[in-house]
Design a protein that fits this description.
mainly alpha, 0% strand
């Protein structure tokens, strides 16, 4: 069942509850809707964190590269590369969590109405390290953070050649 059909079922249940009292048993209960809202709140927080990490990574790497270009401070460029790698790892972690919460949302939305709502907010952590690494190596993260690291490494090589003559 895809997200759009779940949303359609939820909207239909809400319309019917306004007209005919409480929704039929196969539709979502108020508790299940609240649980889904909690999960959606977590998904939104994870995506905001991911967005902030990208902004901080660009700001920090470009700022350190600018300071390194002013003087002979190649160590700042190394620090820029290391900090970008840390932001990459944290961004991958939050993206992994976001994907886990999306899977939890789908699981709760597809659960039968007879199943009681337990308000579980934990994601599946089986093979967590492997899943985190796979998430870190998604093409858009590799492209984004790889470009920052490549620019910083090119700057390190350039400044080393300039310093050595």
């Amino acid at each position: 069942m895809d997200d759009s059909s779940v949303i359609r079922r939820l909207a239909r249940a809400l319309r019917e509850s306004d007209k005919n009292g409480p929704p039929p048993e196969e539709d979502f209960s108020e508790a299940r809707v609240k649980h889904l809202e909690f999960i959606q709140g977590s998904i939104i927080r994870m995506s905001k964190n991911s967005f902030l990490f990208k902004g901080w990574a660009v700001s920090l790497a470009s700022g350190l590269a600018a300071f390194a270009a002013v003087g002979d401070r190649r160590a700042l460029l190394v620090f820029a590369v290391m900090s970008t790698m840390l932001f990459w790892a944290m961004d991958g972690y939050y993206l992994w969590l976001e994907r886990g919460f999306v899977a939890l949302h789908n699981k709760v939305a597809e659960a039968p109405a007879s199943q009681p709502v337990d308000y579980v907010m934990s994601v599946d952590k089986t093979k967590a390290f492997r899943k985190w690494l796979r998430t870190m190596l998604r093409w858009h993260l590799v492209l984004f953070y790889g470009a920052i690291i490549a620019i910083d490494l090119i700057a390190v090589i350039y400044f080393r050649k300039v310093a050595n003559g």
